[in-house]
């Protein structure tokens, strides 16, 4: 956001300079200097007033900050635990085993991932390509 603001300020100053410079050095000194001064004052004010109205940026609520990586890891471990419980209740869920294998790979547990993928392969009689590819990757 800071880079955007700095770039915007620099571009506004550049546009003021491009408009005010020729007016300041025009033939009629009094009238053109007044026009240059007005342009130099009005352009930044107009930019400041108009831009918030036409932009799509949410000025009320700033964008969310990135989540804490340790919190993400905890939530992934919790999700894996919940998936393990669901598969304990319904061990014939082929897609659940594939998802569990993918989850294990995401948390660097390749041995567990292989077991989950093998279970999905057994349930599909070897027809689940996602499980076969996942097992090969693990």
Walkthrough of the structure:
The chain is an all-alpha fold and 138 residues long. It has 2 domains: 2-54, no CATH class; 84-137. The protein is built from 6 helices and no strands. The chain has helices spanning 2-24, 29-54, 69-89, 94-106, 110-123, 129-137. Helix 1 (2-24) runs antiparallel to helix 2, helix 4 (94-106) runs parallel beside helix 6 (129-137) and helix 5 packs antiparallel against helix 6. It starts with a helix and ends with a helix. The relative contact order is 0.07. The mean pLDDT is 84.
What percent strand? under 5%
Structural class: mainly alpha
Give the overall shape.
rod-shaped
Instruction: Report the C-alpha radius of gyration, rounded.
Output: 31 Å
Number of strands: 0
